[in-house]
Write a structure and sequence with these properties.
By secondary structure, this protein is α/β, with parallel strands linked by helices. It is 45% helix and 15% strand.
């Protein structure tokens, strides 16, 4: 049970620990710990998935996770890593997002009796008396120390830090205190951008309760090329199939940079380390086997084995030049549009292979646009009935981004 910290370190999850020796001792017995999540979207993304995997490892080692959604703090907005104030959400929208997020978490965590819990901090934060809160909690915080923290310093110097956001650290620290008092929570985890906020909670509990609790943060991953993990040209890599189809999710992992494959296998799969080390020894063209293993394992965890198998089949068919597959993302269009003349630049934009028609033109000019695996050579090209094969056409942007257009 206590060896789970070694497991997390070996797999690349650990960035900072407030008291490593103390946490190792604490983890020798089952403890309750928590990780907070922003409910501003109806889906987690790949960045969140790193923390979810860490929670799963801790639960498998016998510890109880609390997934805390910020229904209360979401009405304030966390200034961490932001150059401007976050958009504040209504209570109804937050609750709708919370329901979606829990459904995703259930793929990774056991929410059975006495197991994982999902709580909403609106349950206690919205009931606070502001004067009592300032007197009991606010007096333990130094404004000078808060402004020295990077989270607040950058925004303060830009004259864009609202008083509303300035309260955020106090509220997050109070969350930790509340969970310590009510559920005996002794560890808070989170992304490394939350280090200051988490330590504020550790310090508050020490001052108010005279107790030792712990902080553990996870790295904010970037790829070898320096890109932020979970970001693509089209935006965030969401876990919700409606926001990102399983095939595109699978392709995101297939396109992992060679130098990052082992790191991603350690963090985003439950494969044994010995198997990961074997996959890491593959070189040259064989490294695609490791990427396929990564893509299949992560897609299975997020979308289930059936969707992972469909995505793998589609990817193999397209990569091997064997034609299209039903798992490839598609858009249905009225056949009358083809009869009137459907310009390919507009179609590429419409299906998401280009953000604008200008980008679509550049894609064609640079030789990166394909129709039915044939290069599109003119920016004035039009899709005609002769281009349809069994009522559909296959578009491609670059080497690996496919989209099937069907017609009714």
């Amino acid at each position: 049970m206590g060896g789970v910290l070694d497991t997390l370190e070996e797999r690349g999850f650990v960035e900072q620990v407030s008291d490593k020796a103390g946490l190792v001792r604490a983890l020798e017995q089952p403890i309750t710990f928590y990780n907070g999540y922003d409910p501003s979207a109806k889906s987690f993304h790949v960045g969140n998935l790193l923390t979810i995997m860490a929670l799963a490892h801790l639960q498998r080692a016998g510890h109880r996770p609390i997934t805390l959604v910020g229904g209360g703090t979401g009405m304030v907005g966390d200034p961490s890593g932001r150059s401007e104030m976050r958009k504040l959400l209504e209570v109804e929208q937050i609750q709708a997002n919370v329901d979606k997020l829990k459904a995703q978490l259930q793929r990774f965590l056991d929410f059975g009796s006495g197991k994982a819990m999902m709580l909403n901090n609106a349950e206690w934060l919205c009931k606070l008396n502001y004067v009592d809160f300032l007197r009991d909690v606010g007096r333990h915080f130094s404004v000078n120390r808060m402004l020295a923290a990077e989270t607040y310093k950058v925004r303060y110097e830009k004259d864009s830090l609202s008083f509303l956001e300035f309260n955020y650290q106090l509220l997050q620290a109070y969350d930790y205190l509340h969970l310590y008092r009510t559920l005996g929570c002794k560890l808070q985890t989170g992304g490394n951008d939350q280090w200051g906020n988490i330590l504020a909670g550790v310090d508050l509990i020490r001052r108010v309760e005279g107790a030792e609790v712990y902080a553990l943060t996870f790295p904010l991953l970037t790829t070898t090329s320096g890109a932020k993990m979970g970001k693509t040209a089209k935006g965030a890599v969401w876990l919700d199939a409606e926001m990102l189809p399983p095939y595109e999710f699978y392709q995101y992992w297939i396109n992992t940079e060679d130098a990052d494959v082992v790191k991603m296998l350690k963090i985003y799969t439950f494969l044994p380390m010995a198997e990961i080390q074997q996959l890491g020894q593959l070189q040259g063209a064989e490294i695609r086997q490791a990427k396929e293993c990564l893509a299949y394992e992560v897609t299975s965890l997020v979308h289930g084995k059936a969707e992972a198998e469909k995505a793998r089949e589609a990817s193999r068919a397209l990569f091997g030049g064997a034609g299209e597959s039903e798992a490839v993302p598609f858009t249905e269009i009225d056949i009358a549009e083809v009869q009137e003349g459907l310009q390919l630049t507009k179609l590429l934009q419409r299906v998401g292979l280009a953000k604008t028609t200008s980008e679509a033109r550049r894609l064609i000019e640079q030789g990166g646009a394909y129709l039915n695996e044939q290069p599109v050579t003119s920016i004035d090209a039009i899709l005609t009935a002769q281009d349809l094969k069994e009522g559909s056409a296959l578009l491609r942007a670059g080497k690996k981004r496919y989209h099937r257009v069907t017609f009714r």
